[in-house]
Design goal:
The chain has 119 residues and is an all-alpha fold. The protein is built from five helices and no strands. It has helices spanning 2-18, 20-23, 35-63, 72-91, 97-118. Helix 3 runs antiparallel to helix 4 (72-91). The chain starts with a helix and ends with a helix.
């Protein structure tokens, strides 16, 4: 029961963080800090929401007494990096070489974790 309660609490925090766009008027209220800072704040918040959701789901899964198997963590990692890749493309300027390079690293991380999940 404690695992389920913990998991539900974590899922609630994920939903709370996803509500930041509406609660705080994002991205408009972030823009005075600059476009890059607005992108960074939104990216960090989205990634934190993902971590809460993945952790909460993992706790609830574990409460069912099933063996999550060796695929659960790599799959969560693949989803994490795929989300980060999507946010990079959506919110960051991809023209600088450094931005394109880190985007490629995020893509590699998603593929690597995905492959580990299916092997």
């Amino acid at each position: 029961m404690l695992l389920i309660a913990s998991g539900v609490l974590d899922l609630g925090f994920a939903l709370f963080h996803l509500a930041f766009w509406r609660l705080f008027g994002w991205p408009a209220r972030l823009l005075p800090a600059g476009r890059l800072n607005a992108a960074i704040a939104q990216t960090l918040n989205a990634m934190l929401a993902f971590v809460f959701a993945a952790y909460g789901a993992g706790l609830i899964w574990q409460s069912w007494g099933t063996d999550a198997g060796s695929w659960l963590l790599p799959l969560a990692g693949a989803a994490f990096w795929a989300l980060r890749l999507g946010l990079q493309i959506a919110w960051f300027d991809l023209r600088p070489l450094a931005s394109r390079s880190i985007t490629a690293v995020f893509a590699l991380a998603a593929v690597l974790h995905g492959a580990a999940a299916i092997v």
